[in-house]
Amino acid sequence: MADGAPRVERDGMDGEGVVRITMVRAARRNALSREHLTQLLDAVTEVGDSDATGIVLAAEGPVFSAGHDFADVAGKPVAEVRSLLRLCTELMQTIQDVPQVVVARVHALATAAGCQLVASCDLAVAAESAGFAAPGGKGGWFCHTPMVAIARNVGRKRAMELALTGDVIDARTALDWGLVNRVVPDAELDAEVADLMSRATRGSRASKAWGKQTMYAQLDRPERDAYATAVEVMAAASQLDGAREGMSAFLEKRRPVWTD
Questions:
Q1: Which of 95, 170, 159 is nearest to 129 (CA)?
Q2: Type and span of the H or E element at 7
């Protein structure tokens, strides 16, 4: 493993093939440097191509992630900054493109692109001590790209409050605003992540993978276009082995047997 590269391991919390990707650059506040973004992208892509059923995105240290490393930005030409932001965007989109369910395990502060990382995951569980912010609003470099993901999780007025004030919101506020799914005492974080992952990964893997990707495809489209997309995909998905088995099991009043 390269120095500072995320730790990738099968999660010991269950036997369902969940892989945990853990950021371990505590001394750098798990800042998303160009190198670290590349490492995370490689890790997510590799797990995405595997037989894993889910991915837990976690971190170690006093901060979940402080966002972009300003050393990659300060004094750099616009083309270099643009390529950095495109790399970050590729990671965020890959998290949503992989077939596995991706759950963010947020134990501490997540700011700027670190908050964007949480918002880009399918699901998120936060410890009570976690916090979230888009601090560019109170500085000199507005959080334009982080707000793409954050604004799609929270309402417009709340997104503007996060973006314009730059203030940290606590975990309970993040839950109320829709940025995370669960908030639990710090000692219960792993158990809650495991429980949510277990429930989110049951059923046909092929059906769920297609469902996840279609959800993202239709969420931000006008309702008519969203229905057009969903109708075509759902009709085609009825022919999947998992769909046929699920319906047969229901009609025959038996437990389904998933083969995918």
A1: 170
A2: strand 7-10
| Euclidean distance between CA atoms 84 and 31, whole angstroms | 13
Please provide the DSSP assignment of 199-221 as one string. Answer: HHS-S-HHHHHHHHHHHHHHHTS
Alpha carbons 100 and 254: distance in angstroms, whole number: 27
Helix and strand element counts for the chain (H, E):
10, 10
β-bridge pairing 109-111 and 131-133: parallel
Query: H-helix or E-strand containing 80?
Result: helix 78-97
Order of strands, sheet of 63-65, starting from the edge strand that comes earlier in the sequence: 63-65, 109-111, 131-133, 169-170
CA distance 22 to 39: 11
* Burial class for 150, CB neighbours closer than 10 Å (0-12, 13-18, 19+): buried
| pLDDT tens-digit series, residues 84-132 | 999 999 999 999 999 999 999 999 999 999 999 999 999 999 999 999 9
Structure pTM? 0.90
Give the whole-angstrom CA distance, residue 79 versus residue 98.
28
